[in-house]
Amino acid sequence: MPADFVVVANRLPVDRIVGPDGAEEWRTSPGGLVAALEPMMRSARGAWVGWPGQPDTELEPFEINGIDLVPVSLSADEVADYYEGFANDTIWPLYHDVIAPPQYHREWWDAYVRVNRRFAEAAASIAAQDGTVWVHDYQLQLVPQMVRDLRPDVTIGYFHHIPFPAHGLYAQLPWRDQVLTGLLGADVIGFQRAQDATYFLTAVRRRLKYEVKGSNVAVPTVDGGTRSAVARAFPISIDTAPYTELAARPDIRARAQEIRESLGNPSKILLGVDRLDYTKGIRHRIKAYGELLEDGRLNVEDVTLVQVASPSRERVDAYVHLRDEIELAVGRINGDNDTMGHTAIRYLHQGYPREEMVALYLAADVMLVTALRDGMNLVAKEYVATRADNRGVLVLSEFTGAADELRQAVRVNPHDIAGLKDAIMEAVEMSPAEQSRRMRSLRRRVLENDVTAWSDAFLRALSEVRSR
Ligand code: GDG
């Protein structure tokens, strides 16, 4: 059945579970995006186009919790070239300010074009007449224009979850014009920060020479006229309800207490939660913390840093090296500082259920978000959402999208190790009254601007373009 509202994202919001008897089953993987779009998907005949996460798997469309899922199949070679290659080893490092060197390979680009076309064809084939297609993220930047070519009747949105780089860096991309043209197929192109939109618009003006007025681009059409595309910021947020509800649950509060006790009841617990990724500044954080112990400004009997580094992109070389570097640094710091009863860093290269993450947020006196570059950073918002008692300090890198909104955090430049050390001390020593003053304002911001407000704002902008 045709769908009025089609979401296109690299992954379907499901995970394959294989039972003990070998029978396979699909389960929805909870995430903010699904939560925000679910009501819309149910009420408006929605469909979600994406890869089920297993290579070489041909699946028929299926329904789960009232949402039609349309699987796009990828071969193992395509996963290597399109996903691990072009998306995660070309675009990801380039768009995060070349923290790691981007790899440019023509065969990866060819696979990217081919796979983007497959997603676009799937979306075009199920979208209802005059329907809406909402494309997500850097894996699918060519899809908007491909959908437009196939289905000029539909309204197309695109949201970019990661940063967009300054023109001087963007210009490195051998396929820079094709990518801009791909994105401009959308009626509304959403970014996390105003700065990302500005960089994009600059690239459009300089590379394609299209006329740009404010956030509007005059995109040439085949009939010799122009149409208007809008590029602006729509800062994403979290689905706050599960976080505030879990944070109020007695068993989760008891678990937070148990975590404190199992760490030897330090007076301060510092926490980092990240995918193990070079953009997240985990090495900088660990270095600053290690130096504070070495300098005697912090004492291992009084503080513990819990670092959850959930496994990520383990087949991409840069991630293999990063893991080695982090684990070497953690081993050294613990070797130099641990006592029988206290550890400097409790390092966990594991993923956890959301309940345990919330218990960790509740146990943490200081949350360290030290990303070198991050589109938004939802962890910062999740921490704030759980702190109903207005206690706790968020240390937040100015290179995250979240820093635009969360002004009452302790702001840091993670490249400045001396400044980062001082910020950690400020957080550790902050008075309860000051914590409460800041946390109150942070919470107001996060609770008022949740993920539903974000998707409503984006969809409103899309319908305004359509009604022009
Ligand atoms: C991209 C952009 C942008 C992590 N470990 C575990 C776990 N997580 C959850 C966190 C959070 C999410 O994963 C990570 O979101 P972030 O926003 O922090 O970062 P990316 O994954 O890089 O996301 C980013 C985002 O897209 C949205 O637009 O903000 O800038 O890079 O929700 O809690 N969750 C569980 N166990 C773990 O071990 N359950």
Describe what you observe in this structure.
The chain is an alpha/beta fold and 468 residues long. It folds into 2 domains: 3-236 and 452-466, 3-Layer(aba) Sandwich (Rossmann fold); 240-448, Glycogen Phosphorylase B (Rossmann fold). Helices cover 46% and strands 21% of the residues. It has 17 helices and 18 strands. The strands form 3 sheets. Strands 5-6-4-1-7-8-9-12-11-10 form a 10-stranded mixed β-sheet, with helices on both faces. A hairpin with a 5-residue loop joins strand 11 and strand 12 (226-233). Helix 2 packs across helix 3 and helix 10 (282-295) packs parallel to helix 11. The radius of gyration is 23 Å and the shape is globular. The protein starts with a strand and ends with a helix. The structure holds GDP-alpha-D-glucose (GDG). GDP-alpha-D-glucose binds next to strand 13, strand 14, helix 12 and helix 13.
